[in-house]
Write a structure and sequence with these properties.
The complex is a heterotrimer of chains A (about 300), B (about 325) and C (about 325). Chain B is globular. Chain B is built from 13 helices and no strands. Helices cover about 80% and strands about 0% of the residues of chain B. Chain C is α/β, with parallel strands linked by helices and about 325 residues long. In chain C, the strands form two sheets. An eight-stranded mixed beta sheet of chain C has the order 6-7-8-3-9-10-12-11, sandwiched between helices. A four-stranded antiparallel beta sheet of chain C has the order 2-1-4-5. The chains are: A mainly alpha (about 300), B mainly alpha (about 325), C alpha/beta (about 325). Chains in contact: A-B, B-C.
């Protein structure tokens, strides 16, 4: 669903060519925007947890304790059916989820930006080709494709997951970048740069990119969130990395081991709740950021 | 309008071709022989292995050249001969898909349609009432951010385990024999409700937020300002804004299908609901490649058809596309 | 008097404080008078126009009142203003090209507006609209079209038609000719005149930065600078005998047809208008005025120095009393 919001941003007329908010303005509005502060704050908290969590957790994911026990002083979030500490799994899973999300966001961003710039800048046949390509890729459900490819492979790694998710979500970035490049390339300051003899790549990097930086940033944030969700679904279906824990894997284990039947709410609730928080914080921060960049959306 | 449709059709054709090619190509491009991978699950005597290997290779066509296999696959596709499932030998793949399909449709269609309609109304209402907006907005984001797997865990936990209102898994009560009596139908419905609710809730959030943003934008654009300046009632202005906002929302629907289909798979697996998603899962677990391929291409076709339907609706609703002589953006 | 604006001040709320875009403006319009309201960008003319019809959520009237035919216009009260819009006070906005919603046919748009105003006999009004459409040289089937099927000029004219359909007492025409080519400009100008002559509108305030179009259609011209009204007089007086230094400079900076660049250079007015966030005391044109003297530190009031000719300038006041 966050992809729908992303698509709306890509086609929203309010965003393209929004005046890049400079230094002081940005800080002023940024620090006063509740959504941005809340979202960013929560996200940073979770990232912090992901970083220091495994360090402060008194147990490892592989240590054995009393099976299926509820939260206690010893095991802060209780243990699962195998006796593993859930808090330990949670913080490691946080890390893995962020890793996959970041990896796929980087992949999608690079692929999307390169293709989007080329299409938007050159136009013509290249643009048409890219449009068809993105339309086709977008139509194929990402999870289904991932599942089909992943099931044939024998390797299960975070790297593969990240890169492949990135390869299925790059169209969103490409579309946004293409639309922005298109609208910006016919602007006056670009003509000016052309007149003064700058080379195409230089124009793209120095003139166009900064103007769409805010817009790109928003798109990538959304991509990050939807990648994490996609990765958790992928892991849930049993195709995730086999050597580590992730939030999706935790949910899978809970389901497979009848956590519901045994009323193990400490296993059922936390992984998904944390993932929801991660993605929701991103979405909210994204909206706040959009309001900061776009004066029209403020003061509602 | 015609150019618009033709462009769309070409895109669909291409997507179909790409889908079929991926479908065929993946097992053959993967390291290792698909037949070998399948057989490695079993402990077989060398003689038995050799026999099975040759039979399956013939059946699977891996002893033909790549191009021959590809063409053969296309032939099967067009005659709807998707082969035979290994895990449920000798049931045909198309039969298994046919059995699972009604469950998936029963889940997807109401969930998508209801969440779309209700979400739009909710979002539009939130766009004009600040109080509603303050509650709808955060809820919408939370719902949108919930992983399908998690919702599929907490809903049955709350409604199945804590409060014994709904059953927790399965398509129907397995102590019943399928027949058209009220007990069975009721069992179907109660087993259907929680999976439906999962998909519905997550989608609802997304639509509500999307519509809210679009309506806010529309309420402040030039056309709305003009209506307001000419003294139109706020009700009228809202109606116009809603109508204009519905168009990009509709395009969004086509794009969101992919995500919902994926989420549906997860939901079915979590609830052990006997739809296509569950079948897919079984195919993966059992390395049943024919079944896997069959389901994959079926899903692709389904999504393409749904996209096409949405395009047709779009044409009827958007006068610009309908009347455009230059061919709108595809 | 048809319209009287008394000491009107309108401000915008911003996070840095209130920006007074219109500062103590007073003028009156006679029945049937077309008054041009001119000035450079940011002088407050559009704000003034919009305030009279439909105030933005960011705007607030901080002082003054507006009277229409002896009754006060509740410009701050959106609810009270709603039934008066289009029927008594109407506007052709600056964004007229995009003012018509793209998803409904023109006829539907009109009927919905008529319904909002409780007009029962809508067919009669539509027939009248078709008559007026023919009058301005368009074909009647335009009603069955969508706005995006029309050209920019056509849309502009349809918008003017729609805004004047219920024969308002006051029409605010905001930059109606700015986005058009010269021949369409003339056509639109003549359209306004014709509508006034036929009684489709009573009084018109034509807001523009283009003095030349005002010279053609306006009976009187009011010049605004930095939120204040600096001069108002009948058109011939402004064109030939402007008294305020700013107006004089404006007229002088207009290029003359037939004069080549080697015969004379285009003059502008050096400098920029003051910020309206913290406006300077005294006459706001002081820093750019070639005639400024010490009295200008005190704000000059708008005075009628000749019959029908109002100026806010100490120099002009001095010369008039001599």
């Amino acid at each position: 669903m966050s992809q729908t919001v992303l698509e709306e941003h890509a086609s929203s007329p309010a965003a393209p060519g929004a005046r890049p908010v400079r230094g002081n303005d940005f800080l002023y509005y940024g620090l006063r925007n509740k959504k941005l502060l809340f979202g960013l704050g929560l996200e940073l908290l979770l990232i912090l947890l992901a970083i220091i969590g495994p360090l402060i957790s008194p147990h490892n994911t592989t240590d054995f304790y009393k099976l299926a026990s509820p939260p206690s002083a010893q095991n802060w979030l209780g243990t699962d059916s195998f006796g593993h500490d859930i808090f330990a799994q949670l913080v490691v899973g946080l890390r893995e989820s962020y890793l996959v999300g970041a990896l796929s966001a980087i992949c999608a961003a690079i692929a999307g930006m390169v293709l989007g710039f080329i299409a938007g800048w050159r136009g013509g046949v290249l643009d048409e080709a890219l449009q068809f390509l993105t339309n086709v890729v977008v139509m194929i459900p990402a999870l289904v494709l991932l599942v089909v490819i992943g099931s044939y492979l024998n390797t299960r790694s975070v790297m593969f997951e990240g890169v492949f998710i990135g390869l299925t979500t790059w169209p969103w970035v490409a579309r946004a970048v293409r639309a922005q490049t298109f609208s910006l390339r016919s602007r006056e300051f670009v003509d000016l740069a052309k007149l003064s003899g700058k080379r195409a790549t230089s124009i793209v990097v120095k003139e166009i990119a900064p103007n769409m930086a805010s817009y790109l940033f928003l798109a990538i944030i959304l991509l990050f969130g939807s990648s994490m969700l996609l990765a958790s679904s992928y892991d849930f279906l049993g195709l995730g990395p086999s050597n580590t824990v992730s939030l999706g894997i935790m949910m899978q284990q809970a389901t497979l081991n009848s956590a519901l039947f045994y009323h193990m709410w400490w296993w059922v609730f936390p992984p998904g709740m944390v993932l929801t928080a991660m993605v929701a914080a991103l979405l909210v921060a994204n909206v706040g950021l959009d309001e900061v960049f776009n004066p029209k959306l403020r003061e509602r | 309008m015609h150019r618009f449709l033709i462009r769309k059709l070409i895109t669909y054709m291409m997507a179909f071709v790409v889908g079929v090619t991926i479908d065929w190509g993946i097992p053959h491009l993967m390291p290792g022989d698909p037949v070998q991978t399948y057989l490695s699950q079993f402990r077989l005597q060398p003689a038995g292995y050799a026999a099975l290997y040759s039979t399956m290779s013939q059946a699977f066509g891996t002893n033909m050249s790549a191009l021959a296999q590809y063409l053969h696959y296309w032939k099967g596709m067009l005659t709807w001969d998707l082969g035979v499932s290994y895990t449920s030998f000798p049931t045909e793949v198309s039969t298994m898909i046919g059995q699972a399909l009604p469950y998936t449709l029963a889940l997807l269609v109401p969930a998508i349609v209801l969440s779309y309609i209700l979400g739009n109304r909710l979002g539009a209402a939130a766009a004009r009432r600040k109080l509603l907006d303050n509650s709808v907005l955060p809820l919408g984001y939370v719902f949108q951010a919930m992983p399908y797997a998690w919702v599929a865990l907490i809903l049955p936990y709350l409604f199945g385990v804590v409060w014994h209102v709904f059953p927790v898994s399965g398509g129907y009560d397995h102590s019943l024999l399928p027949s058209w009596n009220w007990t069975f139908i009721w069992s179907l419905i109660t087993h259907w409700f929680l999976p439906f609710l999962s998909v519905f809730l997550i989608s609802l959030g997304g639509w509500a937020i999307g519509m809210r943003n679009l309506v806010i934008y529309e309420l402040e654009n030039d056309a709305s300002r003009y209506l307001r300046a000419l003294g139109a009632r706020e009700r009228v202005i809202r109606r116009y804004a809603y109508r204009n906002a519905s168009l990009p929302q509709l395009s969004g629907l086509a794009l969101a299908l992919g995500v919902v289909v994926g989420g549906n798979i997860v939901t079915e697996v979590a609830f052990q609901y006997p739809g296509l998603g569950h079948l897919l899962y079984q195919a993966i677990a059992g390395k049943d490649y024919f079944l896997l391929q069959g389901i994959f291409i079926f899903i692709i076709i389904g999504v393409l058809v749904a996209n096409f339907i949405i395009d047709l609706v779009f044409i009827t609703v958007d006068p610009r596309t309908r009347l455009s002589m230059q061919g709108a953006q595809a | 008097m048809s319209v009287t604006v008394a000491n009107l001040s309108v401000a915008y709320r911003s996070h840095r404080g209130d920006v007074t875009a219109v500062d103590g403006v007073s003028f009156s319009l006679a029945d049937g008078e077309i008054m041009g309201l001119a000035g450079e960008s940011g002088c407050g003319k559009s704000t003034l126009g919009n305030a009279l019809v439909c105030m933005d959520t960011r705007m607030k009237a901080t002082a003054g009142k507006v009277m229409l035919d002896g009754k006060e216009l509740p410009i701050e009260d959106g609810r009270a203003m709603r039934p008066l819009r289009m029927t008594e006070v109407s506007v052709v906005p600056q964004y007229a090209m995009n003012a018509l919603t793209p998803t409904r046919k023109i006829r539907r748009l009109v009927t919905d507006l008529l319904k909002s105003h409780g007009v029962r006999d809508r067919d009669r009004v539509l027939t009248e609209m078709k008559r007026r459409i023919a009058l301005i040289g368009l074909t009647g089937d335009v009603l069955g079209k969508y706005s995006f099927e029309l050209s920019g000029g056509m849309r502009q004219r349809i918008t003017i038609l729609m805004s004047t359909l219920l024969n308002p007492s006051l029409l605010i025409a905001d930059e109606v000719t700015s986005a058009l080519d010269v021949s369409t400009q003339r056509a639109v100008g003549e359209m306004l005149l014709e509508f006034r002559d036929r009684g489709y509108v009573r009084s018109v305030i034509a807001i523009t930065h283009d003095l030349s179009i005002l010279a053609q259609i306006a009976d009187s011209i009011a010049i605004m600078y930095a939120g204040r009204l600096v001069e108002k007089a009948p058109t011939p007086s402004i064109v030939n005998d402007a008294l305020h230094p700013y107006t004089q400079a404006l007229i002088a900076s207009l290029p003359e047809v037939g004069v080549r660049h080697d015969q004379a250079t285009l003059t502008g007015i050096p400098g920029r208008p003051p910020s309206l966030l913290r406006p300077p005391a005294g006459c706001r044109f002081r820093d750019r005025c070639p005639f400024a003297f010490d009295k200008c530190a005190e704000n000059p009031p708008l005075q009628e120095v000749r019959p029908g000719h109002h100026v806010a300038c100490w120099k002009a006041a001095q010369e008039a009393s001599e």
